[in-house]
Amino acid sequence: MNVLDIRNVTKTFGDFAAVDNMSLSVREGEIFGFLGANGAGKSTTIHMVSSLLKATKGDIEILGKNIAKFPRFAKANIGIVPQDLAIYEQLTAYENVRFFAGLYGLRGSLLQERTEEALEFVGLGDKAKSFPKSFSGGMKRRLNIACAIAHRPKLIIMDEPTVGIDPHSRNYILQSVRKLNEMGCTIIYTSHYMEEVEEICTRIAIVDHGKIIAEGTKEQLKAIVTDTKEIWIGVRSEEGVGIEALRSIPGIVSARIDDGMIKLQSKAEINNLNEIIQQLIRSRADIRSVEEQAPNLESVFLTLTGRNLRD
Amino acid sequence: MKIASIAWKEVVTTIRDRRAFLFMLAFPIVLMLILGSALSNAFTDSLSFDELKLAYTLEDQASPVESYWNGFSTSLASSGVAATALSAEADGQAAVKNGEYAAYAKIGSDGIAFYGSSKLTVESDILQAMLASFANRYSLAMAAASQAPDALPSLLAAAGSGTYVRETSLTADRAPNSMDYYAMAMSTMIAFYACMSATQLFRSEKLRHTALRLTAAPLSKGELFAGKIIGSTVINFVFVIAVVAFSRFVLGAEWGSHYGSVLLLLFTEVLLAVSVGVGASYLFKSDGGSSVVMMVTQIFSFIGGAYFPLSGMTGWWVWVAKLSPLYWINNALARIIYSDDVQAMWPTLLLNVILSVLFLSLCAAFMRKKEAL
């Protein structure tokens, strides 16, 4: 059964189509990755699914019911974890979760029980009476999640839930996502961190210029990239590496340096490794390691859109 | 229940916002104390003079009037009047015109001719009243003496006894002193200040990113709108009640005996202010609404009598003042408090409610039209 169906949906702002005739389905029990660079139409789609915006054209269904005709039903079955923290600093963690859960019709002892349960789930049970201003960034992110799950939605939309937090909190959140999925929640997950998406998502859609340009499991997506290979070369110093010279080597599609690692994308059929190494020696780069990477989501994204996800 | 939850959230978040708390409570109380103390002289209902100068001439030196006058002048001296006898040749009227005396009296057996100063009118009026009192007593003494001539010496001797001036006031106990006035003015001003926080009622949800959660929750825009308006009105009214209570029980300000009417009027003022604030936030983009409302609120406060009483104002100023809701409300409150005129509440109350409904309807229409909040 599909939890979410988007059919030929278009959203325009004046003459600009932020989402252009998009169709997409998310099946029950999936952790669905939604990838796209800034301005690709990802947030607009999420805002339409969560009823913040109305589609200019097309239909969106939640659990088989059209959200335009049954908005309350659709809203009651969705939990939103916005990219930006959406909590009240003047309310305690408990009051925050209780307030938002109350808007979903929970009352009395059930409301109290679900509030406590949600706080326990994100590891903030002992911080229930504390105000968010005393929380770390990771704790605030976890509270942001608790506010979205206390009413036990069927579909949880998580928009960049791990932005700007420490590795410990990130791991905690990723574990929570898996646990929620095991408990029966379907999850739509957007992130700039490809490794996160690759790690937890069962199916992924790549959106660009308001359209889905690829969709499938990570294996299916990686299979798209057969004509390029990725070469990673570790250097002791980034100084004088000469990235521009590397880009001019025949077959190189893209070249960048990131934290002491030169990341090159090259046409698969051209053997240019010798030339690359010679160029680095000429520029007196101190090479530490050379390895050819198997295709990953980043290379898939780059191949399909011609840009990095973080551009 | 969802409306109640939203209203509760509004109340709690505002109470815990230290800046709002200080602005809505400490600010009016401090202003009340400063203005109430600094401008207390402007509200006094008594006048004091160093000395009342009276010039006189006695035309008939030998008549009983001279004896009676001598007794009277003793009494005048003890009342702070310096009575100076002028020679027959002196021009008393010119001396008054020159400002040397507040009045000049020419006393003869057939009566008193009185010339008062047109500059020192209050002093002149008091002296006129004293001389009228003297003339009446003298006539009475002469009438008694005509019936009992033996009593004449004792009647003349009595001229210096008793008082010739008694202060009376029609409303001495029912006029506000400076603290009473500023307790009322600051309470109505702070009630109207609710419009400033109201401009942020929906915008703050956008800034905190909670607008997305609220819109995604299964509640209608109407429920959200009602909850926020109710919450904001309630908490701002609580602030006003606290200011009124402080002024009444700590500063001893006069609020009359019709507390229900006073509070009802203040409640409708808060509702009007919240409606105006929310309306402005829909009419002007981003922070434009806040800036406009802040400016308008200051102007309304100034012309509406928040910082100084308007009782002495005349002409165009009164017409300008009438544009301010604070003017209508202060006037209605003053009539309820000092004249026990409870009926004075109704026109202002109805005007507040009608304008509130008008603004809120416009906001609801705007909100329904917009996709997001």
Automatic annotation (TrEMBL), chain A:
InterPro entries associated with the record:
AAA+_ATPase, ABC_transporter-like_ATP-bd, ABC_transporter-like_CS, DrrA1/2-like_C, P-loop_NTPase
Coiled coil segments of this chain: 263-293
The entry's keywords: ATP-binding, Coiled coil, Nucleotide-binding, Transport
Q: Does the keyword field hold Nucleus?
A: no
Query: What top-level branch of life does the organism fall under?
Result: Bacteria
Q: Name one GO molecular function term.
A: ATP hydrolysis activity
Gene3D superfamilies the UniProt entry points to: P-loop containing nucleotide triphosphate hydrolases (3.40.50.300)
Residues annotated as domain ABC transporter: 4-234
Under the heading Pfam families, the entry gives: ABC_tran (PF00005), DrrA1-3_C (PF13732)
What protein am I looking at?
ABC transporter ATP-binding protein
Give the lineage. Answer: Bacteria, Bacillati, Bacillota, Bacilli, Bacillales
TrEMBL record, chain B:
Q: What's in the GO CC field?
A: plasma membrane
Its principal location? Answer: membrane
Q: Which PROSITE patterns match?
A: ABC_TM2 (PS51012)
Quick check: keyword Transcription regulation in the entry?
no
Query: Which terms does the record give in the GO molecular function aspect?
Result: ABC-type transporter activity
**Keyword Metal-binding belongs to the record:** no
* Superkingdom classification of source: Bacteria
Q: Which family does it belong to?
A: Belongs to the ABC-2 integral membrane protein family.
- Its recorded name reads ABC transporter permease
